[in-house]
Amino acid sequence: MPGSSYTSDAAVRHEIGPRLTLLLVGVLTGINLVNYLDRYLLPPILPQIRHQFALDAAQAGWLVSAFFIVYMLTALPVGRLADRWPRKWIIFIGVGLWSAATLLSGWAHSYGWLLAARMLVGIGEASYGCIVPAVIGDLYPARSRARVLSVFYAAIPVGAALGYVLGGYIAAHWGWRNVFYAGALPGLALSLAVLALPEPRRGAADQAAAAEPAPSLALDSGWTLYKNLLRQPLFMDATLGMAFSTFAMGALSVWVPSFLIQTRHMDPVRANNIFGIFTLANGIIATLIGGWLGDRWLRTRPGALYSISAWSLVLGTPIAAFSLFNPHPQVFLPAMCAGEFFLFLNGGPLNAAVVNSVPAPIRASALGLNLVLIHLLGDALSPTLVGWATDRTGSLAWGMALVLPVMLLGAAILFRGARRLDATRLAA
């Protein structure tokens, strides 16, 4: 049923109680962990898959690229659908679809079958990624969203690390097909758990007296909505800031191990272990700290979520540069860890800023557009551009340095967003 009749249903009212609220957030966070676990099961078993199907590097790369292309194409229509229909049913279908597609990946007996299965995973993940932050936004008011969303997004590095570890271990002992079978089961179970829990009413946690930014957007439909979102300053400042942060994160996640091995002459196992530990620790600690700081600063500064994200990029840029050009491991390794810390610090605040920047009735649509833009302008481009810059300069360090001005550009846009929001609230 459409959103107007759905939101009046007493079964999905916001007053679902603190225990059920925590349980719902716990289940959604668990799904996010499984989401990234399933996504990162592929890299450690890719050599076995290439051998099984006699794939060249380009064909193997398409197993990842096709996923991201479908993921981005699906985000917009799913976001619009989620603003009109019961969201937990869309989450149930999406999680069930990607889990089933993961299961089908294990049954694949041809490259075409496996490629199609990975594309289905992209549809399922998009059906989840652009909806859940909107649901969490309906459970918690703006003053505490950054903290809750930071917990939700801290599941990402845990899931990714588990994907690498479990994927490699299971493949070594029982073969690559069993990796996909094992990855599919938790998602199927959690998708059923979502159906058993109530869904909050759209906009339930927003204060009735608060002025929603650009309320007329809720009346738009079709492409008009997306065109007007592109003109919505607070949404675009948060989205572009997130995109340029994602640009840096995507490039570094691909090239740092190669940098440690080729430029710093580390043993490959040690290099991957060090970077994995840095990413896991920073992904949890920095993300949680960022959410806590964002909510505390928001008590006294309306533009706090933008400001803390901007300062994280400003502080991270010289530290990242130091890690690239100082040859001493007792210096560049701590600097690399600290630089990554500041990149992860803005995860909770930036996602909360996006959720807060648009009215509740169109949040899933806005998050769908946000997903498309941050990947299109971020990690879909940056690894290739860093590779291009490395080929031109003959130095991986100078190639990776391409992310430094992009980080500062993201900071400048976020400072602008902070000034806009502060001025808007002061004028009100």
What is the fold's blueprint, element by element?
Elements: H1 3-6, H2 18-39, H3 42-53, H4 57-82, H5 87-107, H6 111-129, H7 132-139, H8 142-174, H9 176-195, H10 222-230, H11 233-263, H12 268-298, H13 304-325, H14 329-345, H15 347-356, H16 363-379, H17 382-393, H18 396-400, H19 403-427
Helix pairs in contact: 2-8, 2-9, 3-8, 4-6, 4-16, 5-6, 5-9, 8-9, 8-12, 8-15, 11-12, 11-13, 11-15, 11-16, 11-17, 11-19, 12-13, 12-14, 13-14, 13-15, 13-19
Could you explain the architecture of this structure?
With 428 residues, this protein is mainly alpha-helical. It has two domains: 15-207, MFS general substrate transporter like domains (Growth Hormone, Chain: A, Up-down Bundle), CATH 1.20.1250; 218-428, Up-down Bundle (Growth Hormone, Chain: A). 80% of the residues lie in helices and 0% in strands. The protein is built from 19 helices and no strands. It has helices at residues 3-6, 18-39, 42-53, 57-82, 87-107, 111-129, 132-139, 142-174, 176-195, 222-230, 233-263, 268-298, 304-325, 329-345, 347-356, 363-379, 382-393, 396-400, 403-427. α2 (18-39) crosses α8 (142-174), α8 (142-174) runs antiparallel to α9 and α11 (233-263) packs parallel to α13 (304-325). The longest helix has 33 residues, at 142-174. Mean pLDDT is 86; it is low at 1-14 and 208-215.
